[in-house]
């Protein structure tokens, strides 16, 4: 009873206790913030990869790909757990932007957009066909929701006009400032002389009062240091925080973005049936978003590229958003005001024979229209993939024979991968079990097919069927995901080492407290307190510090993590500075996932640290000789 | 010197008995012997004063008498029954750690020269502290109210009823010493051990503290062992023992 009572009294009535609580608090908050943001990053990377690949991937490392994929897909459809599958053909290519004479290496990926969207979020990643109309529906729903096509067209035109005005005004304001003008510096030179004078004055005044003390000199030094720091901050403020410039830049970007969205609405509205009606945001979005993604060249593209009479390429392609076509603003949004969509691009693919040899002499080149861009969230994909229709890519990459079926040299079409979507949300164990099932079916398919081909005396066509790998999405991306996970583990380890300082601080403060409380310990023992009782008081004290500091750390850490983006936005509004430069990182929001199991572990560690830090001082306290302690004042 | 007012039964077991007490302290390489075979007893209801000059070992003897300190084993003494502190005839060394804690808490009450109140606790809490020690949590909760009433009664009798929520540093020296006495009495100890209780007070305040002790002795027959170097304080006791050069000279 007295142990708890004295612990509570020491906690509430000794101010020094604030420091170990503060240390535990800040340390735990730091751990939670870092692990949550790193965890969020890992989670986002994993999610993006899963959404890109589906659940299970059948692939071959052979560049030539594998044949009979349609028959294999038929087999897969018989598995009850399989929801959908889609073939993918890949090829090495060079993309050329004729207007800019830019050549970029790219991986051309042949997909069937409909089945691909059933397996992954391919459709939802397309800007023109999904993201823009969806955002536009949001924009319009925020105003008064138009109910008919005519109303929508009018609303979009009005909105576009309003946005254009904002862009013009913001640009005008930005241009009104001469370029390269350095920010104004606040340089009151008199302050530089004033600070030493002030320090001297402080010294003289206090010297007159306390002649034989070091206090006047210390005060003068403090005055000089703080005064100089203040002058430095005052004079450098505009250089440190170029607020106005950044914010104006940001305003222009935002207006550009909104303008682009308004244009997108108008573009969609013009092609909607004139008698369409809708009553909700969802209905409007459904009307604006195409039913299924496609490589069809939209009418508007024909208008854009020179009217209905213009000769247009037959093929369309989508490019990754991070290809370098779009600039990103400081908020991470792609700046699309100078929309390069509907560019004509030339793509050259290096074909590979069914034997896997590169047919350099037969490089296939075709002109495409760039009709959309895809943002998957996986940097490698978004920065190097060009999506084109499956058959086109197969043909260009030498995976689809152009010979007649009855030609003796005819070979069946090939692909590099089959992506598979499994029904429902499978846990890891179930997913691995299904993968094993698919693996067996694939292996038996390969055997059966090779036997059939052997019977037809066409053994050479069964090549690569035995080299198929069946992997789950995370096995497929293991190297990449493990690297990110390792980075997180390493950061936690380093932070954990740094957090050992908590133990040291608690130990030092408790050691000071025990030294300070020697007499009290003697009194407690004199009135009947035992060694164990005295030690328990200090251990409980440490426990409470861990519990209170930890609780504050958990509360503030979780609050910070769950509002990271709001705090970041607030800092941006105040200072004009971004900490998380979203034009560099993959994600437009700072990812964060609070793992409550980790939080609970850290909280427990904080409590244990409190007790461990107090352990040795508590032992010393218990050993205090009461007779010695009470002898003197 | 003895006061004829107190005549204990000749065969009665003393409340405490100190047999052949030796104590030395290590000061650097040399051992300084403070007590050299002291024998002393205090009977129930007796008021005994220990006098001696500074450094004569009075306080050390008091601490040993109150089981706050342990005596050294005499070199020529092998039997534990022939030296050390005996409480009602029982050797305290046989009681073990817990027994000694219980003894200090239940049977002895200490009053120190420098009051030794805990600065983080208020007056009432300081007085109640010894009462909280022996009881487990649930018992302490049950007994909390009666013990609080006892503490309030004690403080009221010492004229401190209006200072309950004050901290020790808000009281005068005399008031602090009265609080210390109240703390020593809260568990109704068999023996009150006072180490120069008036040593840090002016004459008038010191007298008032002695009046309190005398009143306790008279009204409750409280046994008191007091250490002092002031003959006027010692004169109030039934018996005074003089400690000189580590030995009793009376």
Task: Summarize the structure in words.
The complex is a heterodimer of chains A (633) and B (250). Chain A is of the alpha+beta class. Chain A has 21 helices and 13 strands. The relative contact order of chain A is 0.19. Chain B is of the alpha/beta class. Chain B has helices spanning 58-65, 96-106, 123-132, 137-157, 173-185, 203-220, 231-234, and strands at residues 16-27, 30-42, 47-51, 84-87, 90-91, 108-111, 191-195, 223-228, 239-244, 247-248. In chain B, helix 3 crosses helix 4, helix 3 packs parallel to helix 5 (173-185) and helix 5 packs parallel to helix 6. The radius of gyration of chain B is 18 Å and the shape is globular. Chain A binds chain B through residues 1-2, 4-6, 9-10, 13-14, 519-520, 522-531, 533, 625-627, 630-633, and chain B through 59-60, 63, 66, 68-69, 97-98, 101-102, 104-106, 110, 112, 114, 116-121, 125, 129-130, 132-137, 140-141, 183, 187, 200.
Itemize the secondary structure elements and their pairings:
The complex is a heterodimer of chains A (633) and B (250).
Chain A: H1 2-13, H2 18-53, E1 56-59, E2 66-67, H3 69-77, E3 82-97, E4 102-111, H4 113-119, H5 127-142, H6 149-176, H7 189-209, H8 215-240, H9 243-270, H10 281-288, H11 299-304, E5 315-320, E6 327-328, E7 334-335, E8 344-350, E9 364-374, H12 379-382, E10 385-389, H13 390-396, E11 414-415, E12 417-422, H14 428-455, E13 469-472, H15 473-476, H16 478-516, H17 518-526, H18 531-562, H19 564-575, H20 596-623, H21 626-629
Parallel strand pairs in A: 4-10, 5-9
Antiparallel strand pairs in A: 1-12, 1-13, 2-11, 3-4, 3-8, 3-12, 5-10, 6-7, 8-9
Chain B: E1 16-27, E2 30-42, E3 47-51, H1 58-65, E4 84-87, E5 90-91, H2 96-106, E6 108-111, H3 123-132, H4 137-157, H5 173-185, E7 191-195, H6 203-220, E8 223-228, H7 231-234, E9 239-244, E10 247-248
Parallel strand pairs in B: 3-8, 3-9, 6-7, 7-8
Antiparallel strand pairs in B: 1-2, 1-4, 4-5, 9-10
Helix pairs in contact in B: 3-4, 3-5, 5-6
